[in-house]
User: Fold these one by one.
Assistant:
Number 1:
Amino acid sequence: QQCLALAEKQVEQLTTVVEKTQQQQRQLIRRQLERAKSLVDKKPEEAAAIRHSIVTLFGDKSWAADLVGQAQAAASPPAPGP
């Protein structure tokens, strides 16, 4: 019983650490997306490299799917207008 209770407590602690880490990573990704956006006119290659890095590093993370989608969308050329 005591081992089970200790294991459950550790799971709770680890869950908290994981959630906090994910929040910090999301903040970092947001900052990098903003950085890429600010570079797109003067240094488009650097902006593209930042977006590509986001997709490569976080593309398989469900908690980052929306931010990865933003990086991918920004990398896509705009659709032609009517």
Number 2:
Amino acid sequence: MHPPPKSISFKTFIGLDLSLNGTGVAILRWSQTDGWSRPALHLLKFKTSQLVTKTYQALRLLRIVNRLKDLEVFSGATLAAVEDYALGISTSETNCVFQLGEVGGCVRYHLVAGGVPFVAVPIGSNKKFATGNGAAKKDQVADKMAELWGMKTSQFVSDDVSDALSLASMAAYKHLGDLPGMKTYRFQAALVEPLEIIIAS
């Protein structure tokens, strides 16, 4: 896998693992002539030495969106995958639900506004896609993604990044009907087939 030459037209697939502590971004590019480029992995994490105020929370949304714009996530991607909301989360974590909802809403808005189709992947499905087990641990997802893409697990600076790569792989599989040149399994097809592609008409 090599960085894509600028003269080749690539299909681009994006995985977004949205988190309050760090948003994982994985970008996969594929061309029919040259195959897969090396996965591009990013962790969006914004530190603060101040108290986490409402102003900080608002600015965090702006920083996440602007960084994703810099990565061209909202322009020209073939298909993106975002982990869906955890609707069964404990009521003791209500603030977390609202904050993640804000991040998710901002990202979904910009995907639709930018004409980027996306799929909302149910909680646990990306783990099952990677490992065959929807209750797999984070390090198991990282191991399987590293194996699939010919990487070292040390290249994943965070679990959010390996999760994002699993999501990007699902987006690519959904669009291409497989991961050309990669070893895949029937259960993976069963996971991506029912995913609804969301796009502004």
Number 3:
Amino acid sequence: MPNSKKIYGLIPLRKGSTRIKNKNFIKILKKPLYKYALDQALRSKLINKIFISTDSNKIKSHNKKLSIISRSKLSSTNYAPTELVIEEFLKRYDCDYLVLIQATNPFLKTKYIDQGIMKILKNKKKFNTVLSAVKNEHFIWKKNKKGCIFPKNYNYKKRTRMQDTKLDEFIENGAFYIFSTTGFKKNKNRLYGKISYIEMPKESVFEVDDKEDLKIIKKLLR
């Protein structure tokens, strides 16, 4: 399918972090965390150019497809939403679709990014945005104000074997989001309208948010 649309990839990369100091640059198996997602994004033949928006001077670009751009102090704080980084980017760069890639998920693969791009290009009238997700295969319970818990996605009075249960639920794993830039500007959100997904494997439900995640991910990557 020939593609005449301009598609950019954006990786927000902040040098500071709350729970793990400089987590984006922590080495996992001798490789900085952010490089896992970046290397996969650069291999995509559907993304025209990749941008890293950062407040760090540690990253150097040796790839013609990659540009390192600075992000403002306002969008570099602990509490700044990623949407602010996207807004700043779109004021400077023009494209038809943006692939937002989060560096904290080292299980991202090029094939999932490209599947997402193709899905949104082929189904423009059917889907507005696409995100990466993992199929939920667990019975979920929720706590009420009285401290009791109740099931959210199954009936315990008619319990079936897990392998026979069709939960049809997905967990957002934060690896990537794909959307049109006109849609983002109108909605001020990476997700809007009719949302679809690309399913990623079980292990990709883990992204580096705290030290426990880091321990698990290191073991899985080995």
